[in-house]
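Hello,

I think I submitted the 8-iodo-guanine job twice by accident. Can you confirm which output corresponds to this input? Input:
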Amino acid sequence: MSHDELAAAAAAVRERTGRPTHTVAVVLGSGLGDYAAILPGAIAVPYADLPGFPVPRVEGHGGTLYSVAPQDRPILVLSGRVHTYEGWPLDKVVFAVRTAVLCGCGIVVLTNAAGGAGDGLAAGDLVLIRDHINLTTRNPLVGANDDRLGPRFPDMSAVYPADLRQMAHRAGERAGVPLKEGIYAWFLGPSYETPAEVQMARRLGADLVGMSTVPEAIAARHMGARVLGISLVTNLAAGISPVPLSHEEVQQTAQEARSRFTALLDALLPELAA
Ligand code: 8IG
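Support: Only one job matched these inputs. Its output is below.
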């Protein structure tokens, strides 16, 4: 993935949306993907129309980029992401986020569904990511560095800055949606963890376990963007939960949390874009 390919995708976004710049990007995680469809005035562009964008294979919808402009401040909403466990190379996993940053997005909101491993977490909790632990040994920056995108050795001491989390907490208070905070550990998947792996992650300091978000956060930070991470705990991680994990449980919890998630984003996004 070269700077030229990303620049071509960013040019297509500008052309198709008619908006020369966007300030905030939101990536919608599994079970949360239909948020943008209900946004008034959203301009929808299928990923398939954007050069270089990976088109998700599994889910019902193939991936859509939306442009919305609350208070005339354009925001990109990316519905549909691809994962490393599907076999996608990391440059494709981070392609949409990198394009969004090239479009001007200095803030990237990454949402996901995740397993809860930390004490006091319950299914249905919304958790702001305070920091991450990469347990995969994979990194989207491996390979030649393009200095136009960012530095060879980017600093990762504040990927998820405290002021963005504070803004989210305040938006949550206004919307009546309580938010917790935690550390997110990236596992490759697609099998869920064993109970022993969940205990390992807990001892390393993780509260959340998941299969996404971290590569996008690394790529966004590489390009100088600031990241807000929001996890929906759709299941307690293996061994913490008394019952086996199931995709049905995940989908049902996501369904139940949808209205809180929507209320949070409605309160937060205009603020972030302002
Ligand atoms: I949803 O328990 C969801 N995604 N690694 N573990 C990991 N990813 C997840 C989990 C989980 N739940």
